[in-house]
Amino acid sequence: MKVRHYILLVLVLWTGTLFAADIKFTASVSKTEVGAGEPFEITFSVNANIERFGAPVFNGFQVVSGPNQSSSMTSINGNTSMSMSLSYDLVGVKEGEYIIGPATIVAGGKTYHSNAVKIKVVKGRPVQQNAQSAAGNAPAVSSAPSADLSKSLFIKAVASKTNVYQGEQITVSYKLYTSVNLVDNALDKLPDFNGFWSQEIKNNSQRVDWTIENYKGVSYHVAVLKQIILFPERSGNLVLDPLSMTFLVRRAVASNDIFDQMFGGGSYQDEKYKASSAPVTIHVKPLPENGKPADFQGAVGNFAIQTSVDKSSLKANEALNYMVKVTGAGNLKLLNAPKMDFPEGMEKYDPKVTDNITETEKGVTGSREYKFLLIPRKEGSYTIAPLKFSYFNPATQRYMSLSSEPYSIKVAKGDPGTNVTAFSGSNEQEANLLKKDIAGIKTGTPDLYKEGEAFYGTLGYWLLILVGPLAFIAARIFRKQQAENNKDQVKLKWKNANKIAAKHLAIAGKQLQAGDKKAFYEAVYKGLYGYLSDKLNISAADLNQQNIAEQLQLRQVDDALISRLTDTLNLCEMARYAPVTGISEQEVFDKARSIINDIETHA
After folding, report:
1. Do domains 3-122 and 489-602 have the same CATH topology?
2. pLDDT band of 533, cuts 50, 70, 90
3. What is the dihedral of CA 539, 541, 543, 544, to 10 degrees?
4. pLDDT interval class at 406 (50, 70, 90)
5. C-beta separation of 537 from 546 below 8 A
6. What's the DSSP call for residue 47?
7. Considering only Cβ atoms within 10 Å of each terminal Cβ, which end of the chain, N or C, has fewer?
8. Structural fold of domain 3-122
9. pLDDT tier at 76 (50, 70, 90 boundaries)?
10. Can you say how many angstroms the Cα of residue 533 is from the centroid of all Cα atoms in its chain?
11. Number of H helices, E strands in the chain
12. Domain ranges of the chain
């Protein structure tokens, strides 16, 4: 060990012993009232060297940066003092009043607690999702003076093409260039991509891959922050908005410490720096009118088609499947179902669409399959005409027309009275009752009554007379019981909590099928919070994660289930305002339903 390290160790131990009896550990905030989405800083300060730090739970807040640590030690006229602070940048997620509990430290073998802090969150802007951390595994590089940060740290938007046709796919990569040390980062603003249909390239890795790149004669560490596939929806000059981030940069500074000067040491300073990519203009040309086929439906790229039928002979009222498969690269997800003219006498149903599509930096590739259910209602010979499919190829700047083969279908006479068919999938049989034929009409005149027989005065007659009053009395008794039950609103809400949640989850399921992610997360979020409000009898004003956790703990719900609930609520909260990646919506839906079932079992 170096002599310098021995001296510093002795000073630290001596300082800790000297001030152990007068250790002050406090928490302070930059603001006590903030708007939703507005960042603020909470700082935990202590006048001693600490051995361990325990952060409080930031329920109701999103951590966008931290812990950011700084420390100092000064010696004036033989009096040595030490201070240390740890800070977090937080964002209020939802309106309300929240209490951030005490943090804990261990110093000199003893445990100390800071004061609690009360924060009021008022109406403000929506909360943006945290960016994937680029600083978490950033390489260590040399520091730079503050004046040079604009040349040492910047974001570039790199488009694969800037001159394209309407509907032609391009890839935009947002790249971070740095030659300074990064401690932390936070996302400020995502681009809106107005005028484009966008598809983010998913990255399941939680780490950012760094490479070395020479840009304008300078070597930088480079990381790809986001990659987006874009399809221009209109012609003209479309501008890609900037991506903005805030970084915490660590810079070397000159030290006044005598030991640093004697032994060649140094100090550092952390500084926040905002960086934004420059806007990029994409020049979009309209698709040419010259040579446009009459059957063109907007496919742009390079495609091929395949068609098939699962049977060529069947009976009337039985089903057959006609498949159309489009493969290639381009705007596959924007394709409409092909227009088909099937023979008269064949009932056609909306196609089932199956995608096998991948998104990479080279663009969207794969296949989309349409499966049409057809039901011939009469016997005879039918011919399914060839499918015409047209697309525009930007590489050749020409329209291409494709045609499939025709299919001859022989239909035999169907079984009498049969109008039930089976829809055959690749791995399943789904029986669907499509229509009911008119039942056969019974001929002849029925006997309404026999001569000599009368209904008046019979037992049936008197029973019918009594049915009315008895039903009235039963209804009065039922309504009275309902009124009694409704007096206890807490019990009523508790009983109906699961029904309310089921209603919202049903809506979420429909939005999941429709592919509307924002509406899906909104429905799951409302379903969980509505269920918990009624189940735990917590008013909307007091409904926050801390109160929910406390009430569930009182009901002996285990911590693992509470943690699953909290994670799901946080995910839904973020997804309502900004897109999330790397997670399946079906998984979130199943998790929410499982959480409600588990709470019903335990609470």
Report:
1. no
2. confident
3. -160
4. very high
5. no
6. S
7. N
8. Immunoglobulin-like (2.60.40)
9. very low
10. 24
11. 9, 33
12. 3-122, 146-285, 301-432, 489-602
**CATH architecture, range 301-432:** Sandwich (2.60)
CATH 3.40.50 corresponds to the domain 146-285 = no
Burial 245-272 (b: 16+ CB within 10 A, else e): bbbbbbbeeeeebebeeeeeeeeeeeee
Q: What is the arithmetic mean of pLDDT over 531-538?
A: 79
Give the model's pLDDT for residue 541: 56
- The three state secondary structure string of 316-369 is CCCCEEEEEEEEEEECHHHCCCCCCCCCCCEEECCCEEEEEEEEECCEEEEEEE
The answer for residues whose C-beta is within 8 angstroms of residue 87's C-beta and 6 or more apart is 41, 42, 43, 44, 66, 67, 68
Give backbone dihedrals phi and psi of 492, rounded to 5 degrees, phi first.
-65, -45
Does domain 489-602 fall under CATH 1.20.120? My reply is: yes
Higher-scoring residue by pLDDT: 474, 545: 474
The average pLDDT across 338-345 equals 87
Question: Does pLDDT of 286 surpass 90?
Answer: yes
Q: Which residues of 191-220 are buried (b: 16+ CB within 10 A; e: fewer)?
A: bebebbeebebebeeeebebeeeeeeeeeb
How many residues does this entry show for the chain? 603
Query: pLDDT per residue over 196-243, tens digit each?
Result: 888 888 776 656 788 888 888 888 999 998 899 999 989 999 998 899
Mean pLDDT rounded to a whole number for the chain: 77
Rounded CA separation 331/309 (Å): 26
In the structure encoding, which two tokens stand for residue 325, read together? 């498969």
State yes or no: pLDDT of 289 exceeds 70: yes
Question: In 3D, which of 592, 590, 492, 545 has the Cα closest to residue 57?
Answer: 545
The rounded distance, in Å, linking the Cα atoms of 284 and 235 is 5
Q: What pLDDT score does 90 carry?
A: 84
Q: Which two tokens stand for residue 556?
A: 């002996």
Tokens of 260: 């640093």
Q: List strand residue ranges (DSSP E) for 216-296, in order.
A: 218-232, 236-240, 244-253, 267-276, 280-285
Label the pairing between strands 320-330 and 280-285. Answer: unpaired
Cα(22)–Cα(16) distance, rounded to whole angstroms?
Answer: 10
Q: What are phi and psi of 365, to 5 degrees?
A: -135, 160
Instruction: Give the count of beta carbons closer than 10 Å to the beta carbon of residue 442.
Output: 6
**What is the spatial distance between Cα 547 and Cα 538, in angstroms, rounded to a whole number?**
8
Of 72-76, 93-97, 187-191, 592-596, least confident by mean pLDDT is: 72-76
Q: Around 127, how many Cα atoms within 13 Å sit in the side-chain half-sphere?
A: 30
- The pLDDT score that the predictor gives to residue 4 is 46
Angle made by CA atoms 415, 421, 426, in degrees to the nearest 5: 135
Residue 400 burial class via C-beta count within 10 angstroms: exposed 0-12, middle 13-18, buried 19 and up: middle
Nearest to 534 by CA among 590, 589, 492, 583: 492
The tokens describing 371, both together, are 């499966």
Torsion of CA 178, 179, 180, 182, to 10 degrees: 30
Q: DSSP class of residue 274?
A: E
